[in-house]
Structure formats: C-alpha cells, structure tokens
Specification:
By secondary structure, this protein is an alpha+beta fold. It has 3 domains: 205 residues, no CATH class; 156 residues, no CATH class; 74 residues. Helices cover 51% and strands 13% of the residues. It has a 5-stranded antiparallel beta sheet with strand order 4-5-6-7-8. It has a 3-stranded antiparallel beta sheet with strand order 3-2-9. A hairpin with a 4-residue loop joins β2 and β3. The longest helix has 37 residues.
Length: 571
C-alpha cells in the first residue's frame, strides 16, 4: 500500500526486527564460529576489531569458503554462458531470427554482469557463503544514475528484515544502514532534514542511520508513469528524525532473497551452518583440550617430594636446578605424567572435521576443480550428493537467479540497450534455462541415455542396419545439444534443416539426370555406329533426342536406344 508515513515504516521495521530475535541469536553463534565477517547480529564490532577470538580450528571457515567457491564456479562461472533464454513456444525457438535474437539478448545480459558494468562476479561468492551459513542471503541490484553501470551488492543479513506475500515469495525488504555525512549528502542531496544536513556539513565523517523500505504498491497502475506508481514503493527515511529523505518506486524488486531451506511457518531460511554448529562447537572444545594436553606433554608439570627440597627450578634450556638430586643421585624433581591419550583426541577431532567438511559438500566441491574430469564423470561419481543438493539449487535458481535475470532484462530494456524483438514473438512468454556446468550435470541424464542408445545400436546395426529406423535422429541431436549445453548459435533450426535437405535432394536428382543423360548419349552413339546407313542411325538418334527434349523420361529414352540396338544386332 502507498501512503505509509515514516512513523509507520519505523514501527514496521521494529516489529519485523523483533520477530526474528531467536534467529539472530542462532545467527550470531554461527557467525562467531563459521562466518566471523558477518558477526554483528546481537553484538556490534568496531572496524578492524579481531573476529576470531572463539575459533580454535579454521576448518569450518575454509569449508564454507570452498562451498561458496564451488557453487560460484559451477552455477555462475563468468567464463561460461550459464543461462539461456527460450520462448514457451518450442516451435518459435527453431525459427532462425528468433534464435539469433535470443542469443544476442543473452550476450547483452551476460555482459551486464561483467566487470565493465558491475561488481556482480566479485561479490557473488560472499552471497553464496551467507546463504550456506545462515540459510538466508540478501542481494541488491540497482542502476547507478548517469554512469551506465549497475550496483550489485550483497547486503548483510543483520541489516535487513523481510516479509512474504500470500504465495510464499519475499516481496518486502526493510534495510537499516549507516552513511557518513559526506555520503548522505552525495546520495540524497537536498532531501536531508535541516538538522541532519547541518550535522553532515559540520562533520562529514559522522555516521547517520537510514532505513530503506521496499514493499508492494497496492495502488499500482500500469498506465501511470511517475516513479511512485510503480509495482514496488521505495522510501528512504532518517531513523532518528523520522524524516522522509527520498521516495520512488521500482518495476521489479531490487532485493533478491534466496533461502537455503525453510521450516514450515518460517520466513527466514535455515542453512548448513546451523546443521553443523554442534560439530563446530565440539571441534573447538576438543581443539582447546588437545592444545592443553599437548602442552602438558611438551612442557609437563613437575613433581617434587617436598616444597623445600628443591630450590628454584630452572626449566629453560641449559638451566641448572640445585637440589634436584639427593646424595645418591636420585632425581627429586620429576615430570608429572597425567596419562592422557592425545591420539584418541586427535582421531575424534578428525572425525568432526570430516563431518563439517561433508556438511559443506567438501569432496563434491573439490572434484569440481579437477582439470581431468568432465561434467559427466563428475556427475556419475557424485550423483547421490547432487540429488540431495537438488532442492537447494532449485531455490537458488527460483529465488535468486531468475528474479535477478528478469530485473536485469528490465533495466537494459528500459535503457534501450537490447536489440528490437522480431514481430513474430510480440507478446510471447520467455523462459530462462540454466546451462551452467552444475545445471548441465543435472540435465545430462537424457543426453547420456541417448549416447548409450547409439552405442548399443552401433553393434546391432552391423547385423541389421534397419534398426536405426526406430530412432528420430533429429530429435536425438536436439536432446544431445541441450544436455551438453551446446550454444544455440551453432544449432540450426528445423526449417533451415528441411531447406538444406531439399536442396541436397535436388542436387542429387540433377546429378543423377546428368549421369543418365550421359549413358543415353553413349548408347545412341553405339546404335548409330551399328546402323547400316547414316539414315538409319540418324532416324534412331533423332527419335531418342526428341524423347529427351520433349521432357520424357530419361530411362525410357535409354531403353528405346537399347531396344533399337538389340534389333540391329539380331538382324
């Protein structure tokens, strides 16, 4: 709904913030042990402050980073075309002008994610790490006015609260953030309150807190052009003064909020970080204990019979301790052995490390980087884990990538940076198909089945070639092309294939006609030579020529010549 006052918006922020207090306690604990760069849910950290005080083992941190890097490389690798555009009408996808237009639009969209236009690829691993650890991540995408660039950024979950529509989709995001006075003047110009403007001018590096509220516009009308009439309302307010500094709207929600997994009745997601938290805390305790045990072995406590027997012990290298031996040379000062078994502790620690790594699919992500393994081999070895990942990857696509690409299409389209669409597809529905290595590995099942079928048919066809008639080879090629993510640019449409085949058949017919014509001329020459007189030869050749010129059947003309030749031979 439009018309919400700044006071109402601040109340909404406080309500949504309070409702997730239990989540924040869990997230703070996860951040302390697994994602210390985001450890500001229930505590405030100063810039430059140490964030690893509670961490004795870095395995969870490295496993989370490995997971984020693996998903980044297999879902949104900048070196590959990781998505393709298609129309809902499959027949139109085979129409060459449509195929070319879709490919060109894909290229423009992919370019908009590149470093020339945005920071998308540089901030994306952080989003995947937030998603895996906390179960919820917030990504923001907005054009930078007048610069021809797009601001892609990952917003800390501690700054943002969310709400869902009746259909379970995130449609409301409130974000509390701070700007320096200098930044506030640059961003909001004359929109600041008088008091805040004076403070910003006087101290350009003082922090000012704002709340950005984005929510559905209940009064949206497509025929209105003003920013406040768009599908989503955007309002910036000063938190302290409740002053509205800017108001506008968005055609698409600029915040994209994927959830790793959701419990019934909950808005926020739950991630891998929560699942492995017991193992992480146990590993830290075991590490702390193992360190103490190792110190006791390396530098054990000393035992003496009586406090006054031994003078000050000098345990440093080369030190001499007087009184440590009795008159018989017996050692009066001995190491105190506790009998602890460090080996068992180390073995249990390794078990916990492996559990944490596999919680983040460590072996799966390590195989992704193998240079000698194809996507098919990788999928075959990790098929079970891929099945477990399937629902989560589907959420990434539906809650993050699809809205992101849709918004990017809208931004470029409104900026007139996309080629005009062919008239044939006006009003058509466009879909997004993911062709990244990970998506391709999941879709490769059909392609592998086709490949195995042809391998088997190859052996059978040696006995009976007619078995190949059972297969629609054209459709098989299309399935292989989709399964291996072959660029649409090199795949010909059905109409083009039919045209090429018709031309080929016509050329073959012409060549066959020329060959038959040459045979007819040779036979005519022989008949002419066998005739008793030039008149007879001429008569036969003339009839044959007339048959050919009048458009008659070449085969019939040749038979006429052969019949004449047999008659002459019999005579």
């Amino acid at each position: 709904m439009t018309g919400r006052t700044p006071q109402e918006l601040v109340l909404h922020w406080n309500k949504l913030k309070g409702e997730r207090s239990e989540f924040e306690r869990t997230w703070q604990e996860i951040a302390d042990y697994v994602r210390p760069l985001r450890a500001e849910f229930t505590s405030i950290r100063q810039p430059g402050e140490k964030r690893h005080q509670r961490i004795f083992d870095a395995t969870p941190l490295m496993a989370a980073d490995s997971f984020a890097g693996g998903i980044y490389g297999m879902m949104t690798n900048p070196a590959n075309r990781w998505f393709a555009l298609r129309l809902a009408d499959d027949e139109m996808n085979d129409y060459d002008p449509v195929r070319d237009w879709l490919y060109d639009v894909e290229t423009k969209l992919l370019h908009s994610f590149g470093p020339q236009v945005s920071r998308f690829y540089s901030v994306l691993p952080s989003m995947y790490a937030d998603l895996a650890c906390f179960g919820t991540a917030v990504f923001y995408s907005e054009e930078i006015p007048g610069q021809g660039r797009i601001n892609d950024n990952v917003r800390p979950l501690s700054e943002c609260v969310i709400a869902e529509s009746a259909y379970g989709e995130v449609d409301t995001v409130y974000r509390r953030f701070a700007l320096t006075g200098k930044q506030a003047i640059e961003m909001f110009a004359g929109g600041l309150s008088e008091r805040t403007a004076r403070t910003a001018e006087k101290d350009p590096f003082s922090l000012i807190h704002f709340i950005h509220c984005v929510y559905p516009n209940g009064e949206y009308k497509a025929d209105k052009l003003e920013p406040t009439a768009r599908p989503f309302v955007s309002t910036y307010i000063e938190e302290e003064s409740r002053h509205k500094v800017a108001e506008g709207g968005y055609y698409e929600l600029p915040y994209h909020v994927p959830r790793w997994a959701q419990a019934a009745g909950e808005v926020y997601g739950r991630g891998i970080g929560e699942q492995i938290l017991p193992d992480v805390k146990m590993l830290n305790r075991m590490d702390e204990t193992a360190i103490k045990a190792a110190q006791k072995v390396a530098d054990p406590p000393l035992a003496a019979a009586d406090e006054g027997v031994v003078k000050a012990a000098r345990t440093y290298p080369g030190g001499i301790t007087y009184g440590a031996l009795d008159a018989n040379g017996t050692q009066l000062l001995r190491p105190l052995m506790t009998g602890g078994n460090i080996g068992i502790t180390l073995e249990m620690m390794e078990q916990r490390r492996n559990a944490i790594k596999e919680g983040f699919y460590f072996s799966l992500m390590q195989m992704i980087g193998s240079p000698n393994m194809t996507a098919t081999e990788w999928m075959g070895r990790q098929e079970e884990k891929l099945r477990l990942l399937g629902p989560n990857l589907g959420r990434i696509q539906s809650e993050f990538l699809s809205p992101l690409i849709t918004r990017r299409f809208g931004l470029l389209s409104r900026a007139n940076q996309l080629p005009p669409a062919p008239e044939e597809i006006q009003g058509s529905t466009m879909t997004i198909e993911y062709v990244s290595p990970l998506a391709r590995a999941q879709m490769a099942g059909e392609a592998q089945a086709v490949q195995r079928l042809y391998q088997s048919l190859g052996m059978i066809a040696q006995v009976d070639p007619s078995v190949l008639d059972n297969v629609d080879h054209d459709e098989a090629v299309q399935i292989l092309g989709r399964g291996w993510a072959v660029p649409a640019k090199i795949m010909r449409g059905a109409d083009k294939v039919k045209e090429m085949r018709a031309e080929r058949e016509q050329m073959q017919a012409m060549q066959q006609g020329l060959q038959l014509g040459a045979q007819g001329a040779d036979v005519a020459k022989k008949i002419a030579g066998a005739a008793k007189s030039g008149a007879e030869a001429g008569d036969v050749a003339a009839k044959t020529g007339q048959q050919l010129v009048s458009g008659g059947d070449i085969t019939q003309a040749i038979e006429m010549l052969r019949g004449a030749l047999r008659g002459k031979t019999a005579a």
